[in-house]
Amino acid sequence: MTDLSQATREALLRVGTSTLTGILSRRGLRNMFMQEVRPIRQDLPRMVGPAYTMRFIPAREDKAGAGGRGPLQRQAMEECPPGHVLVVDARGDARAASAGDLYVGRLRARGCAGIVTDGGLRDTDGVHKTGLPAYHRRASSPPSGIVHHPIDINLPIGCGGVAVYPGDILVGDCDGVVVIPPDIVDAVAEEAVATTLYDEFAEEEVARGRSLVGLFPVVGEEAKRDFEAWKKARSV
Amino acid sequence: MTDLSQATREALLRVGTSTLTGILSRRGLRNMFMQEVRPIRQDLPRMVGPAYTMRFIPAREDKAGAGGRGPLQRQAMEECPPGHVLVVDARGDARAASAGDLYVGRLRARGCAGIVTDGGLRDTDGVHKTGLPAYHRRASSPPSGIVHHPIDINLPIGCGGVAVYPGDILVGDCDGVVVIPPDIVDAVAEEAVATTLYDEFAEEEVARGRSLVGLFPVVGEEAKRDFEAWKKARSV
Amino acid sequence: MTDLSQATREALLRVGTSTLTGILSRRGLRNMFMQEVRPIRQDLPRMVGPAYTMRFIPAREDKAGAGGRGPLQRQAMEECPPGHVLVVDARGDARAASAGDLYVGRLRARGCAGIVTDGGLRDTDGVHKTGLPAYHRRASSPPSGIVHHPIDINLPIGCGGVAVYPGDILVGDCDGVVVIPPDIVDAVAEEAVATTLYDEFAEEEVARGRSLVGLFPVVGEEAKRDFEAWKKARSV
Amino acid sequence: MTDLSQATREALLRVGTSTLTGILSRRGLRNMFMQEVRPIRQDLPRMVGPAYTMRFIPAREDKAGAGGRGPLQRQAMEECPPGHVLVVDARGDARAASAGDLYVGRLRARGCAGIVTDGGLRDTDGVHKTGLPAYHRRASSPPSGIVHHPIDINLPIGCGGVAVYPGDILVGDCDGVVVIPPDIVDAVAEEAVATTLYDEFAEEEVARGRSLVGLFPVVGEEAKRDFEAWKKARSV
Amino acid sequence: MTDLSQATREALLRVGTSTLTGILSRRGLRNMFMQEVRPIRQDLPRMVGPAYTMRFIPAREDKAGAGGRGPLQRQAMEECPPGHVLVVDARGDARAASAGDLYVGRLRARGCAGIVTDGGLRDTDGVHKTGLPAYHRRASSPPSGIVHHPIDINLPIGCGGVAVYPGDILVGDCDGVVVIPPDIVDAVAEEAVATTLYDEFAEEEVARGRSLVGLFPVVGEEAKRDFEAWKKARSV
Amino acid sequence: MTDLSQATREALLRVGTSTLTGILSRRGLRNMFMQEVRPIRQDLPRMVGPAYTMRFIPAREDKAGAGGRGPLQRQAMEECPPGHVLVVDARGDARAASAGDLYVGRLRARGCAGIVTDGGLRDTDGVHKTGLPAYHRRASSPPSGIVHHPIDINLPIGCGGVAVYPGDILVGDCDGVVVIPPDIVDAVAEEAVATTLYDEFAEEEVARGRSLVGLFPVVGEEAKRDFEAWKKARSV
Q: What residues does F47 pair with on adjacent strands?
């Protein structure tokens, strides 16, 4: 179980994945945003939490549990620690479901922070009703075992083309999911809050007609002074 | 025209495609859920009805009707029986539309139950306004004849990677569309209602913190007793 | 900067992309609808305006601006003329963003008419809040420079599989984006308004149970008379 | 069974698919070349013959013949007329085979002219040994019935994104397969022979250093005279 | 290290993957043929051996070995047991290499039986010269570490959409690679040899003009008698 | 026209694209290998030369040259400097040809070094006969103008997902094509020759049974000494 400080968790809940991918990119981490993984609905709450992983391999008729839902899958729902995000490596295959509303409901009841798969979720209306942030490739009703076989828990995996190690911090918003290494998450969160504040200032300036020159992406001296004044005025 | 009993139709309107694919899978039918076929909007009513099929092949400039909308397409809209779902084999090609709002409006006016294509629908706002459940791959404005040539009606087809025979029962919800063979549809519907009731019970239990062990997917003795009590209490 | 008459602009704001692709197809223009380019949200206002283009090529670590956001991108936001649509050729690659909310906000503040990319947009909630019509392939948070390098402005480009020449007229609705050559846009708009009026009449007729025969897509004498009467009654 | 004159057959055996697609395109037929359909080996003999078609739909466990190879498939091998090409609509799906060496061997023994599928062939070494021209998407060993169900014979189909009507003339070379409407095949073949002769002349000229200006694709007066002289010298 | 009897190995070297997938399918194993995995050249020797697996996840700049070739990869080359096939789960991603000629040369020198990846191999000319059977998706020159991070050895993996457990028997021919569970491999091999003999008989019969009826795929009494006579004549 | 020293050209003709991508990757250039671009035949000579580029956008019926082959295309064949490689940005679209044997023959006759497209080539047998190294996605017979419109010459382009600037050095072997910035090409070539020599040594060592430990990819002291001795023995 990974420690994620309350301050960092709260900070991450207030910043966007675009801000975070920008910061990670400047630190040399260029492949941290999951491709083709999206929220099941547009109005989900934001998601923040350390990763707890499950790996699927293709199903095979001669393996116990093929065609059904193995105990490993249920175990993941029972053991994913509170505050954590269950991340499923479904090899990008959404022909059958990675999980459904009862499993997601159990994660929710146990205080988990979200579920992410690069395959599909089923019962998406039910999943949505649990209130747990849930990300997938697309809705998929067929039972998991037709395509997938859960093979192990909490090993490093790939999800949406990104490496996810147990304990990595996942942040999700309406645009998708970003992965943050835990050893830099506090610094990244702090920087993200500052960047977000500046973006808020810049958005207001842009909305009232200010040019991007000296404002964004390169910040000139004048913009720096104006930003300081803006912060003072808002008592930030 | 296929008979679909009123009781079965009503039952199917109350169960999810995930429940149905689960039941079909246990009966050995593993490929009954259309891939990459989704509702045009999230708030559609559910869809239930027997399939009436239309097949497209690629358009060719030397064939009458190429570049336009052939009489066969209009015929499908005029002859798809009330209560039925028009299912279009568009070879998964959404570069041009399979149908638009006037065609869908006519289906609606004639009492049809829905339209499904593995290609695209155009005028999706207008289609949505007709109120008819409509499923496709993605919105596509270009006229059908640029890409498609309607070639025959009510033959077995493929749609979304699933075989659809005329008279098969189609059920659609927010997650997609499942195909049910008509000879087992009554039994499947009955089982689905029972499963749905149990799922409702299990969801409540999960929401109040009960473990999945003995509850789902494997149902233990205790859960069976609790379920009976729950049903009694609700006078189901 | 292209002239687009106020009358034509207003006409185009009232007609659908399906009507326009139909008219263009009858004039022999069969590939004018962008594939896999969709509105960032379903509730966007319609978009009409001449194209102002920007071209991306793949990023390369040895080129200035790689890994960051080059001055060319900002220049596009500052120079896209009011009333115009910024169209980005991202080679269909949505692994990184084509633009975000500050850039889109600047386009909005400067009176531009929209933004279209066959890649991805980031900060889609912020983009949505600007109110500017925005079309993309899918949301994508990573900064542009990880994947893209802006290379030139206002050359002919490809976007969503369609050729876009600077000054072409773009029209977007909930189904997507269509491109209209400027030399025929007045005639196309006029025809589209007439077609839309007939469609409105036909929709009403269909809704009250009239057959498609002689009504759509082929219009018979009776329908012509009824349409004239309908127009008179509505004083159109 | 389609008549294809011996003269036209021989002419088509000597011209390339690129020459034929060029001629068809100038006649307004723009989509006659199968996409992603290639010879199983580079050293196949050329293929010419009228189309005899078979259509697959997705397999389903409740349909007789699912999981095995139905009588319809064998019937196609026994009844495809001599000199004809068996064309299979496999919906572009190569996850299981469309046919193997015994089936192809039977076609060969019965004097058929080739086999084409937009799915896969199995036993490609054995298929190659039969000497019959064979085209597919890629090699695929699994038995047909895992994925496909043969549903009808000699209806119009799609193959490789092209409409194929029974009796259409198919021509295959190392680059792929082109479809020619039978009512224009004699004229197309004649034109193709003439074009091929000019191309041969032009290739020689180009090889010895002549500029393309006035030679290709636009043919100037000088090139016309030189071509006549070249033909005379070769007594063509 | 898995035992594979010499008799079974030799039997499997003489039968095709199409014969094996047919036998496995009749035993209910329907997904044992790797998709989009092909020999690097057409003239490779056949491949037979138990699987020794390596798993890749996406590379990440903050993980040791990213950008380079980690010790795990070398370890796999040094420890894959003689007679075994190294199978790499590259998530179907061929943007960078899974291995090159030095690694493959080492496998060859150590007496391994082959290498299979659902990603790409580099130096394919050098790999070919080693003589080791090698299967991949397509050639790919970039060094592994740009895209892949080797994460563990000899766990169950997916490769080409098929589950591969350490010790599974892999067989490769010019069409691709099939996976056989070790507990049935002797029976499968025996059946495959018998089937192959019958196929050889049937091919000869077909080549001399015999109908498929009663010969293939259903074998009638007469064909059974003829086959017995054919075997006697060949003293098989 | 770019200068490429004879020494560097000869060096590059003797090294593999895998060696070059490795060297470029160590210099921080990670995306220089074209994806899905392959030689038209396996037995092509290697290709080395500076890039001369042509850009295609999608064809449009209202633009001169649509449906035919424009003068720009011919101009590229006439003006690509001797020793250079013509690189075509076809947006990865192989539905129609990028060039055919007459165009390629002209390049050859004029002393050009190769042709590369991320679309398709037609007349591949004829192209092969010219002897010019030619790379594409797959064979495609339809005339260019059905899909493509040549729009400009010698601007920076994307090809196979890689940025190509005029004057970049392209190297092709049987595995594909790599792009090298001209300002580092001499150093890269020199390093590649040295690396290739070591690889040759290592291959021999591996073939005779030496372990990879200390040999590859990390080179230990002993291997360094042995390599020196090997070079001395071969008088390199």
A: F172
* CB pair distance less than 8 Å for F175 and E69: no
Distance from CA of F101 to the nearest CA of D (A): 8
The single residue listed with the structure tokens 């970039």 is: E142
Residues of D with CB under 8 A from a CB of F: 16-18, 20-22, 25, 30, 32-33, 35-36, 38, 42, 173-176, 178, 199, 202-203, 206-209, 211-213, 216-217
Q: Which of D93, D106, D125 to mutate to test the interface with E (most CBs of E within 10 A)?
A: D106
Q: What is the mean pLDDT of each run of 10 residues along chain A (236 residues)?
A: 87 98 97 98 96 98 66 95 98 98 98 98 98 98 97 98 98 98 98 97 96 94 96 88
**Sign of torsion, CA C219 C223 C225 C228?**
negative
In residues, how long is chain F?
A: 236
Q: pLDDT, tens digit, for every residue of C202-232?
A: 999 999 999 999 999 989 999 999 999 999 9
CB atoms E217 and D68 under 8 Å: yes
- Chain D residue with Cα closest to E206: D106
**HEC sequence for chain A:** CCCCCHHHHHHHHCCCHHHHHHHHHHCCCCCCECCCCEECCCCCCCEEEEEEEEEEEECCCCCCCCCCCCHHHHHHHHHCCCCCEEEEECCCCCCCEEECHHHHHHHHHCCCCEEEECCEECCHHHHHHHCCCEEECCCCCCCHHHCEEEEEECCCEEECCEEECCCCEEEEECCEEEEECHHHHHHHHHHHHHHHHHHHHHHHHHHCCCCCCCCCCCCCHHHHHHHHHHHHHCCC
H-state helical runs in chain D: 6-12, 17-26, 71-79, 101-109, 124-130, 185-207, 221-233
Q: Is the CB of B141 less than 8 angstroms away from the CB of C209?
A: no
pLDDT tier for residue D149 given thresholds of 50, 70 and 90 = very high
ipTM of the prediction greater than 0.85, yes or no = yes
Contact C37, C125 (CB under 8 A): no
Kindly state the percentage of chain E with pLDDT values over 70.
96
User: Closest Cα of chain E to D122: distance in Å?
Assistant: 6
- Are B68 and B35 in contact by the 8 Å Cβ rule? The answer is no
Q: Strand, coil or helix: what is D113?
A: coil
Helices (H) and strands (E) counted in chain F, each on its own, are 7, 12
**Model confidence band, residue F159 (pLDDT cutoffs 50, 70, 90):** very high
Contact status, residue D31 vs residue B67, Cβ threshold 8 Å: no
Neighbours of chain F (3+ CB pairs under 8 A): C, D, E
Nearest to B141 among C42, C175, C203 (CB): C175
From the list C196, C155, C164, C150, the residue with the least C-alpha distance to F58 is C164
Give the C-alpha separation, F12 to D99, whole Å: 45
Q: How far is B161 from chain C (nearest CA, A)?
A: 20
Residue (of A132, A138, A144) closest to A120 by Cα position: A138
Q: How far is CA E7 from CA D211, D218, E16, F128, in A?
A: 65, 66, 16, 45
CA distance linking residue E14 with residue F212, whole number of Å: 33
Q: Residue A57 is nearest to which of E32, E59, E157, comparing CB atoms?
A: E157
CA F137 to chain centre: 13
Query: Which tokens belong to C140?
Result: 């994508």
Chain D residues in contact with B155 by the CB 8 A cut-off are 151-152, 155
Distance CA C112, CA C116 (A): 12
Structural contact between residues C86 and C55, judged by C-beta atoms closer than 8 angstroms = no
- Interface contact flag, F35 E125, Cβ < 8 Å: no
D11-21 per-position pLDDT tens digit? 999 999 999 99
pLDDT of residue A66: 44
